[in-house]
């Protein structure tokens, strides 16, 4: 992206009381309506902030309870969403009009103020609320390096709610040095886990079911059972050359998944997509040779498509990515009570096992080469909403 700033996000939970909760809830609901309204008006007409704002501002003000600045931001959000669609369409992808369902609301420096006492003041549809940032006690709370810094300044931020808890994704930026630009060494990473139950899961919690692939591969493998004995290499070649109905169907599913993974990387402005090392994937996942072919094909499709968008595709070491807790880093067999569940025996955090693995894979790329030094680097991992840096792992 052409941008003169390095941007980072610090994520923190907020301590809110009942009344504040109601105000924030109401604000999120009105924000979604405002963004939708502006998008409905601008879709097919215009997509720049300077066009969408004058077109939709009055209507957003009239038909929602958003304050003036939040109404402006909602028109900008609509402009950004429509621009994203146009870009994806120009890359040959199918797009449809954006809908705003995520429970979030954007803030800028006019609608949000951070204070030195660790509180934040947020505009709502009525009065401002002032609440405490519930920062981790640990010394390595990575948020501090931005909050306590003179180099980083606050920019656009996002409030989001999950399971009744409010999280603030505080955007920070600092000017780029002359020589700096986002590169593979220094960018945002999307982690991807491959498997049988879920064909692919991203660190941003996008799931692609593996059921269709498994079903069709099973049929195919049954028919071609004889090939199994003739050795993997020729079996792979036969699969490559096959034009059977099942194979065509599986290829369609893989194309759909690889497009979606690249779209996800674009949406989160990732510079790198990280997979686990595919070499021993059969041992780890219990995959059949057909599955291994499917994983390899998916990987190559992603690599091919991502290249056109300037995104690198990498493999990282796969050791323990399924047993490590993405929250606290504790690694143990006992963390995996079943194939699909992850439950950390140390910090008790629970997650879908493949989603946990996807975050570990992405994080492994972010942290590569950092074990032996205190270098923190500038890479970060794309998560479901917002991102974390290499020095912190806060769930969003
Ligand atoms: Zn843990």
Automatic annotation (TrEMBL):
Keywords: DNA recombination, DNA-binding, Transposition. Coiled coil: none annotated. GO terms for biological process: DNA recombination; transposition. Residues 178-265 form the Probable transposase IS891/IS1136/IS1341 domain. One of its GO terms (molecular function) is DNA binding. Transmembrane segments: none annotated. InterPro entries: Cas12f1-like_TNB, RNA-guided_DNA_endo/Transpos, Transposase. Residues 295-361 form the Cas12f1-like TNB domain. In the C-terminal section; belongs to the transposase 35 family. This is IS1341-type transposase (TCE32). It comes from Natrinema versiforme JCM 10478.
